[in-house]
Fold this protein.
Amino acid sequence: MARVLAIMGSGETAPTMIKPHRYLFDRLGPPPVPAVLLDTAYGFQANADDISARAVDYFAASVGRTVEAVDLRRFDGSDPVALEAGLAKLARSRWVFAGPGSPTYALRQWAGTQVPALLADKLQHGGCIVFASAAALTLGRFTVPVYEIYKVGADPAWAEGLDLLGSIVGPEVAVIPHYDNAEGGNHDTRFCYLGETRLAHLEQLMPADGWILGVDEHTGCIFDLDARTATVVGNGTVTVRRRGTSAVLASGESVAIESLTVLASKKGPVSGAAPQATPAAGSAQPTVLHAEIRRIEEEFDRALEARDVADAVRAMLELDDTLEAWSGDTTQSDAGERGRAAMRRMVLRLGELATTGAQDPKAVVGGYVEAMLVERAAARDSKRYADSDRIRAALTGLGIELRDTPDGTSWELS
């Protein structure tokens, strides 16, 4: 059986990762493949049940595979029967997925339990581990305590990780998902919300040969342990960084796993590497869903400008389908709220158009005006100038401006 470790920077339950997930499942053979969702990282959250349900639905509806959520949220001995049942399911599984939440919470729960050994066993004897976002942070020897640093204000310091990746690429590595995050707008939130200053400080706390594997959002790095290759999939890049010097692997690129450690061991500048600039104020790059929402809004605007109701409705339906497709994404983002706000704006503007009418007003009243002009011309030919003036006055009162010329009478809506 294949031995695979997949690290995803974010978007693990988004449309962007459907194809990689299908590929990973296919590596394990035809269904059914025992597959579990490990819920520890977000087990402290009040909406943990909802996160699990959405992820299970995503894999069933989008990936076409059955995944079972195991209840391993707490290891405090409060329910030993449930704990043993969850560990048994984890042991039998051939595909294990974990995603959002807190890396340090997960590590505290797993410490001293069977979980690290069960995960390592799959990488040694056969199976696939897919760790994304918060869970991805736990894979190296060093882990970033994201909540504590970014939310609470703790001084930057490493936490001890599972070091599952150490057996693959060697020791002293830290995995940083959300590597290209730009949600901060006017402040640097790259490198999983650390920013350049804090990441550089953490690098100084590493051993001399310590290095970082950075995985962009909506991007994955698939380690095939049998072929000894690392392949980049998805929308972004994977970065090997050591002491501020980076080498970047593009999506679709596949390299020998050993070449990652070679890149990480270089003492001088890495060929082709470029320093990463701090984003300027207000220069945040949109997420994939943000970009889709903006594209659809622009299509709606063009349709409304052309008074094309059918295309405007099509844009609204596409936005609804897009939001539904992304509803399983468990990452914490405001893109869903932005999408719903965009939909409300579209409804309002389409309602305003319904009030005035989508058709060109001149086309709507043109036949009536032309009929009145025929009657006015007949009155003038018969020298019934009073009738002609009354018709002109009536049309003017309705906002229709007449222009009499030697070639006839033209009109416009004023």
In short: The longest helix spans residues 335-356. Residues 361-413 form one domain.
